[in-house]
Predict the structure.
Amino acid sequence: MARSSLIGFHRVLIGAAILFCIGFAVWIWWAGHNTVLAVVFVVLGLGLSYYLKNLHRFVDYKDDS
């Protein structure tokens, strides 16, 4: 059971990182700062989204739900 609670916690952390990356990119772009930095954070957010969607492949666990 401890493994599944760690997976859940990992999902929460990755979700928070995705929200931060996308939110920061939107703020940077809206404020008119460095557009390249905004694009980098969008790419990071998309990469983390892919990782979260395919988490079972990366950490090798079976989702029983």
